[in-house]
Amino acid sequence: MPTVDPLTLSEVVARHAQTMPEALAFVEGASGRSLSWRQYHDRADALATRWSEEHRPGERVALWFVDSVDVHVAMLAAERAGLVGVGIGPRADRKSTR
């Protein structure tokens, strides 16, 4: 059986941003918002850069989003910045988010 080198999500997105930049990466069902692979890659890079200036690697960042393209960008940005993205659902109460 051939060996396959595992890729991180960040590596997969970067590869797609290079090889098929304008292809759709996400389409939100409810709103119809979409992101191409290039947009996904670039937005995550920008957010990762900002978070890298504000946080140390290994820190947790709370991500409170409804399921949208934004939560996927934020999770990828957390990976790229060496942070731990903690997804919090929109129905979470204060007690569960502490």
How would you describe the shape? globular
Detail the poorly predicted runs. Answer: none
Order of helices and strands: HEEHEHE
**Rounded to an integer, what's the Rg over CA atoms?**
15 Å
Total beta strand runs: 4
Secondary-structure content class: alpha+beta
Structure write-up:
- The chain is of the alpha+beta class and 98 residues long.
- Helix 1 packs across helix 2 (37-54).
- The radius of gyration is 15 Å and the shape is globular.
- A hairpin with a 6-residue loop joins strand 1 (24-27) and strand 2 (34-36).
- The mean pLDDT is 89.
- The strands form two sheets. Strands 1-2 form a two-stranded antiparallel ribbon.
- The protein contains three helices and four strands; from the N terminus they run αββαβαβ.
Short characterization:
The protein has 98 residues and is α+β, with helices and mostly antiparallel strands. It is 43% helix and 17% strand.
Give me the secondary-structure topology.
Blueprint: H1 9-19, E1 24-27, E2 34-36, H2 37-54, E3 60-64, H3 69-81, E4 84-88
Helix pairs in contact: 1-2, 2-3
Provide keyphrases for this structure.
98 residues, alpha+beta, two-stranded antiparallel ribbon, 4 strands, 17% strand
